[in-house]
Structures are given as C-alpha cells and as structure tokens.
Amino acid sequence: MNRENYTKRFMFEALKEAQKAFDKDEVPIGAVVVCNGQIISRAHNLTETLTDPTAHAEMQAITAASNYFGGKYLNQCTLFVTVEPCPMCAGAMYWAQLGKLVYGTPDPKRGFTVVSTKILHPKTEVENGILAEDCSKIITSFFQKKR
Amino acid sequence: MNRENYTKRFMFEALKEAQKAFDKDEVPIGAVVVCNGQIISRAHNLTETLTDPTAHAEMQAITAASNYFGGKYLNQCTLFVTVEPCPMCAGAMYWAQLGKLVYGTPDPKRGFTVVSTKILHPKTEVENGILAEDCSKIITSFFQKKR
C-alpha cells in the first residue's frame, strides 16, 4: 500500500468513528491512534453522552492508547482525527509527545493553530487535508440538521 | 469570613489534594471546584498511577463537577488549583466556560499564560498568587527528592 492510501485508510477509520458520534447526536468527530500500522485505540466525541466537556475523541483515544502501552508517551504513534484539534486536545498531545498528528479538515473557529501553534510538542509532525471534504461534510450536515 | 480567607480556605483544600499526590509519588498538584461556597469536586494529579498524560488534577475536577451538575458548563463555579494550569487544562476550562480560575503559583515553563492567554474562555476571571509559597514549596521539595 502506498503512503497516500495508508493515510487515507486510517482517516477513513476516524471517519467511521465520527459517524458513530453523529448517530448519537454528538458533534461528529472521530479519532484513531496508530502504531506500526496497527490501530491501538479508536474513539468519538462523547461530550453530551458523558456530560463531560473533556470527552473529545482525541482525549479518549490518547488515554486508551497510553493505557494500552502502559506508558504516557506516544512518540511512536500517529493520531488521525477528522477535524483540527482544539487547544485542550493539542495540549494533551504535547504531554503524550505524540509522534505525528494527521487531521482532515481545519477548524477556523477553535483549532489550535488559530490560538497558538506552540501548544503542540515541537517534535510532533503535522499533516492535514486528508479526506478533508468528507470530514467537513459530516460536520456541516450535523449542524444543518440541528437548525 | 472575609473574601481573602474564603479564597485561602479553598486553596488550602487544593493543597491537601496536592499532598495526596505527593504521597503517591505524583507531581504534587491539587484542585477543587467550588460553587456557592461548597466544594463540588476535588482531585489531584494521577498521570503516573493511571498511566494517562491527561489525568491532571484540573481535568479530573472538571469532569467530576460536570458530572455532578449534569451539565457541561461550569460558569457558576470557581476552580482552585495549586499551580498555573497548562494549555490542555486551560483548554478544558474554555469548554466548561469556567466562571473563575484561582491558581497558587505560576508555571514559567508550561503555564498557559506562557503559551497563549487566548486559551481560556474570555469570560473566565483569573486570580493568582494565593498561598503561592506553599503551592510552590511542595513542588520544589518533590523534585528535590527525585534528584
């Protein structure tokens, strides 16, 4: 599998998580953590279901991955998430020393890059725009349904 | 009880939490969430115990308080924490629309104000320097012990 397909494949898994959030009437954002080509954890936004403003997809995926490895550092891992992380989630990635972050579509309102690019760990690689249209479309249709 | 004693009283409760972390060999930071003069939740750093880089005192205190209220917003609450919050925790306070943040001692390395003051919600009031010496001393003695 070439690199482009590899990246798309995991973003597609994050999109499946976003769809699970959509089906629960949660803001549809999904994430997976990958290490050596294997999915270590997967999660979707559950802030309403859990009544917890910290229950973003990325936070849960990081907690689960750290638990799996029995260590706090995810420097060998890539986190795929459908939407650009907020400062809270980017701050969690800092503590995990995340190896690489791949996100689908930007969040011009509350994405970490809007607030400060210094939130992420300096060693974390960043790639974006993967399946951006699909990642954006599911969010747009969620908010259209809400209106 | 006058305002100064009120604030010190709750910071002292946060310090008690920090001591619990110290006793577990965790970086000694503690937090309490207060609403109408009542402590709603209390927590201390558990990142090592839980193998979870997101298990900061503030994160747990916010999750527990939201759970208690059955709502994601803590705009009527004050969070007392012994050390200046990091960007992750300040980002969580943003989503909770925290009413007020009171912290003891600054964190010149990774405090949110070092990274960006835009991380907090614009409506969140901030006060600091409460029992600063005690809040700082417990951290210093923890790292001295580690050396």
What would a concise description of this structure say?
The structure is a homodimer of 147-residue chains. Chain A contains five helices and five strands; from the N terminus they run αββαβαβαβα.
Question: Can you characterise this structure?
Answer:
Two copies of one chain form a homodimer. By secondary structure, chain A is α/β, with parallel strands linked by helices. Chain A has five helices and five strands. Chain A has helices spanning 3-23, 57-69, 87-96, 112-115, 132-146; strands at 30-35, 38-44, 78-83, 100-105, 125-128. Chain A has a five-stranded mixed β-sheet with strand order 2-1-3-4-5. In chain A, helix 1 packs parallel to helix 5 and helix 2 runs parallel beside helix 3. Chain A is globular, with a radius of gyration of 14 Å. The N and C termini of chain A lie far apart (41 Å).
Structural features:
homodimer; 5 helices; five-stranded mixed beta sheet; globular; 5 strands; alpha/beta; 147 residues
